[in-house]
UniProtKB/TrEMBL annotation:
Statement: the UniProt record of this protein carries the keyword Kinase: yes
Keywords tagged on the record: ATP-binding, Cell membrane, Kinase, Membrane, Nucleotide-binding, Phosphoprotein, Transferase, Transmembrane, Transmembrane helix, Two-component regulatory system
Entries under CDD domains matching the protein: HATPase, HisKA, PDC1_HK_sensor
Chain segments annotated as transmembrane: 283-306
Organism of provenance: Dictyobacter formicarum
Protein name: histidine kinase
Enzyme class: transferase
Reaction(s) the record says it catalyses: ATP + protein L-histidine = ADP + protein N-phospho-L-histidine
Domain Histidine kinase intervals: 675-889
Length: 909
């Protein structure tokens, strides 16, 4: 069947026509579907917009009622007079026409005041009782749809506002009933406006139970209609919905439901589906009409085409399927068609002439084809040119032939020749200025040029004995142009048949020449590409090595696996975090790494739970804690997919990140807040206590007591100020913003000031000083170093049990000060941590409850800011802290002077 269609134009046109009709029908159906969906969406959007506007207006009305009720409750809360409350209610109702009744309830829900006055309902329990129960449990307004106080029988929205004292105790409830009839008035106005325009519309507002709250059909208020309104249930779950459903009249209606979020209500707009979708029906009618008209027009066109064109062409094609090999006989049907005066008759006459001319040319073409096949059989340029010359001489009667090729300057020179002298091949050079030369003109114009050569012609061809020349251009867009030049010894021009044969042969020769040149160029290009590929491969290898080095230098761990879970790559960071050492895990299952993670985990069950969530794709990130070399680390794990350029997964990756430092910073923040809060509370409590004591008017304090109180307040304030200053200095030092006021300072004066400062606090203490006879000045900020000496001396005096020794030594560039005390000592495991912020040794915590653990940390920060060093050493009985300060002026070390300060001398200092 397919072969028959290919051989028959009639069947091809019929197939195209049927296919076109099918495409039109399918396109019409597609357009119908898209337009119908768009029209339906527009209708639904219109109804949803109307419902949304009504929902917004209802929501604003409820919010306004709630806010006005809260204001009314504040007014009622300021009086206890029943008559005054009734007057306030009357004024409120006059300002709110939508309010049906106003009520005042006691804390148990018994009606105390109502407006309009309803004596029968007073001192009775308010109904519905659910509103009272919810209001007693709430701090804001609550509302419910129903009939408030059975004697009124007025349906409305009951809004109740609890009134509470400052301690949260309920003193009463203010409630209003908003008439549902008033709430329905805007809906009635919208429906009437639509009916005046000839449109049928129904709007309903329902509460969370499906009860009608507002509707143009007033007699149906408070009826449960959830089953009658499709889409309403979705709107009550806070979703906009539009769908077609069966109405009460048995016809299809379009229901559009929109939620009222603040009230858990819903607005449902409904209109007859036939009316709403009338535009869709009209579009269907117009589309059907267009398809019918198109089909009828196409059928009429097809019948005309079949009778006037297809059948005559079919007859001509059947009678002229093959050219006869003997004497031509024209069929009778063709003769009849040739007599027609239209295009079919002209086609029939042309076919007859074509057959007559074709038989005449067939022999020449067969010879030309054989010649051309011989030329295109090679891909080497010189071999192709030699074949062109040889076959050209065989095709026409010529005595010599040559191919001329332009060089870089455009000068035509002999590439290959046959039948010419060596002088002709060697000396011929035709520049573009030789406008009388046939080869130059032929290459310039792209057309054959022939000339007769006479005695007055100065050319190499005439000297070689040739009298006629024909130049045929062989022009290739990709390989450049050459000229085929043929010569005859007889002085007569080439006829048109010979020119046409050579020109047709030149077209085939052009292809052969272009293929040969392009093949030669492509071979050179392939070598260049091979060299380029080798260079790119080396570059890619270098980039791969760089990438591998970068990934290996990452502190974070990276693991790459295939789809089957086999490990393809792990960097050094992953091996270090999983404590694998130099062990290679590539080509192993990912479970091997999971086992290593589980083995190092502090909580193996936690790791198992994380891995289970990874396998179930429940999460892609998790945090686990591992222990390596008696050190705990917090690792953040992130599992991700690796995709190719098309977005298809080709493997998975696991990133392990050490977040121990980050967690320590979080813990530091928590510790800082706790420590500062504790330390700030103590001086503030003392200040507050003494200030309150001084402010008591019923007690008279002596001047000494008042001075003592004020000194205590001043001392605690200084303590608080110093604490804040230390924290700020520590923060500045860590941020690199601590500014030092450096100046040459005497070490002896510095120590004297420090000792004098500690004297009032430790009057019985004894200090032994070991000083050189002479000391150079140090280049320091004396205020900062006084803080260092105060912290170190305070620690030595508080935690020591004997004499405190201060020993000063002068070195090359620094002065070293060592402060020692006898006592309990510092445990070896605590010694590396004593300069950390908020750290306090166990013995220190037992002996002294106060302190933030910042003294040594601040001392270390100040000493290092001066370019010095501080370190601690401790034995069972002696603890020594040594720090160094830079020398201002170079000096030599002198003899050491040892002194012992007694308690009496300590007081004098």
């Amino acid at each position: 069947m397919l072969h028959f269609v290919r051989r028959s134009l009639l069947m091809q046109l019929l197939s195209v026509y049927l296919l076109f009709m099918l495409i039109v029908l399918v396109g019409g159906l597609a357009v119908n579907s898209v337009v119908e969906q768009q029209l339906r969406s527009d209708v639904q959007a219109s109804d949803q917009a109307l419902a949304q506007e009504i929902a917004l207006e209802t929501n604003l009305q409820i919010r306004d009622a709630e806010s006005s009720l809260a204001a009314l409750g504040k007014q009622v809360d300021q009086t206890s007079d029943t008559q005054e409350i009734a007057n306030t209610f009357r004024t409120y109702k006059l300002s709110r026409p939508d309010v049906d009744h106003v009520y005042w309830l006691d804390p148990v829900g018994v009606l105390q005041v109502t407006w309009p006055i309803n004596s029968a309902a007073l001192n009775t329990e308010f109904s519905p009782p659910d509103v009272v129960q919810r209001a007693r449990m709430s701090v804001g307004p609550v509302f419910e749809v129903g009939i408030a106080v059975e004697t009124t029988f007025n349906a409305g929205v009951i809004i109740a506002q609890p009134m509470r004292l400052s301690d949260g105790r309920l003193v009463g409830i203010v409630a209003v009933s908003i008439s549902l009839v008033e709430l329905s008035e805007p809906l009635i106005a919208v429906v009437n406006a639509q009916q005046q325009q000839g449109r049928h519309l129904m709007i309903n507002v329902i509460d969370s139970r499906g009860v009608l709250v507002a509707t143009p059909q007033r007699q149906r208020i408070l009826q449960t209609v959830l089953d009658e309104l499709p889409g309403a249930e979705q709107a009550l779950h806070n979703h906009v919905a539009s769908q077609i459903g069966r109405g009460q009249d048995g016809q299809d209606w379009l229901f559009s439901a929109v939620p009222i979020s603040d009230a858990d209500w819903a607005v449902v707009v409904q209109r007859p589906a036939e009316e709403a979708l009338s535009v869709v029906a009209q579009f269907h009618l117009w589309l059907l009409t267009a398809i019918v008209l198109f089909a009828c027009g196409g059928l009429l066109f097809w019948l005309i085409l079949l009778g006037r064109v297809i059948r005559p062409l079919h007859t001509l094609a059947r009678q002229h399927q093959a050219l006869p090999s003997s004497k031509l006989a024209i069929p009778m049907d063709t003769t009849i068609l040739a007599a027609r005066g239209d295009e079919v008759g002209a086609l029939a006459r042309s076919l007859v002439r074509l057959e007559l001319d074709g038989l005449e040319k067939l022999g020449e073409l067969r010879t030309l084809l054989e010649t051309s096949n011989a030329v295109v059989g090679s891909l080497e340029p010189h071999a192709v040119v030699r074949k062109i010359i040889r076959e050209a001489r065989r095709l026409v009667d010529v005595q010599a032939a040559a191919v001329l090729l332009p060089d870089n300057q455009g000068i035509l020179r002999v590439l290959v020749s046959d039948g010419h002298s060596e002088h002709y091949d060697r000396e011929l050079a035709l520049t573009p200025e030789h406008i009388s030369s046939a080869p130059v003109v032929a290459l310039r114009d792209g057309a054959p040029v022939q000339k007769l050569l006479g005695p007055g012609t100065a050319s190499f061809s005439y000297e070689d004995g040739f009298r006629s020349v024909l130049a045929i251009p062989i022009i290739s867009r990709h390989a450049g142009g050459v000229v085929l030049l043929v010569h005859r010894t007889e002085p007569h021009l080439f006829n048109q048949n010979e020119i046409d044969l050579l020109l047709t042969f030149a077209n085939y020769a052009t292809l052969a020449w272009e293929h040969a040149v392009l093949y030669e160029r492509s071979d050179e290009r392939l070598h260049e590409v091979a060299r380029e590929n080798e260079r790119l491969y080396q570059h890619a290898a270098e980039e791969k090595q760089k990438l591998a080095a970068i990934m290996e230098s990452m502190h974070d761990g990276l693991v790459l696996t295939g789809i089957d879970g086999i490990v393809l790559y792990t960097n050094q960071g992953a091996r270090n975090l999983l404590d694998l050492g130099g062990e290679s895990v590539e080509r192993c299952s990912i479970t091997t790494l999971y086992a290593a993670l589980r083995a190092n985990a502090v909580d193996a069950q936690q790791v198992d739970a994380v891995l289970t969530r990874f396998e179930n794709a429940a999460t892609s990130e998790a945090m686990v804690t591992v222990s390596s070399h008696e050190q705990r680390r917090s690792l953040h794990l992130r599992l991700f997919d690796v995709e190719d350029e098309a977005g298809q997964p080709i493997g998975r990756g696991l990133l392990l990140r050490d977040i121990t430092r980050e967690r320590e910073l979080d813990e530091f923040k928590t510790t800082l807040l706790a420590a500062v809060g504790h330390e700030v509370r103590t001086p503030l409590a003392a200040i507050k206590g003494y200030v309150s004591t001084l402010l008591q008017e019923d007690v008279s304090w002596s001047t000494a007591d008042q001075r003592h109180f004020l000194q205590t307040i001043s001392s605690e304030a200084d303590r608080l100020t110093q604490m804040v200053k230390n924290l700020l200095d520590l923060s500045r030092q860590e941020a690199g913003l601590l500014q030092l006021n450096l100046s040459p300072t005497s070490v002896q004066d510095l120590l004297k000031t420090a000792v004098k400062h500690e004297r009032p606090h430790y009057p019985t203490a004894s200090i032994q000083l070991q000083l050189p006879a002479t000391l150079p000045e140090v280049n320091i900020d004396s205020a900062r170093i006084e803080v260092v000496l105060h912290n170190l001396l305070s620690n030595a005096l508080v935690y020591g049990e004997g004499t405190v020794t201060i020993m000063v030594e002068c070195q090359v560039e620094f002065v070293t000060i060592a402060i020692s005390n006898t006592g309990q000592g510092i445990a070896p495991d605590e010694l590396p941590h004593i300069f950390e912020r908020f750290y306090r040794a166990r013995y220190g915590r037992q002996q002294r409850l106060g302190g933030t653990g910042l003294g040594l940390a601040i001392s270390k920060a100040f000493v290092e800011a001066h370019g010095g060093k501080i370190q601690a050493a401790s034995s069972k009985r002696v603890t020594t802290i040594t720090f160094s300060l830079p020398i201002a002026v170079a000096a030599t070390t002198a003899e050491t002077l040892t002194t012992d300060i007694s308690p009496e001398e300590w007081r004098r200092v």
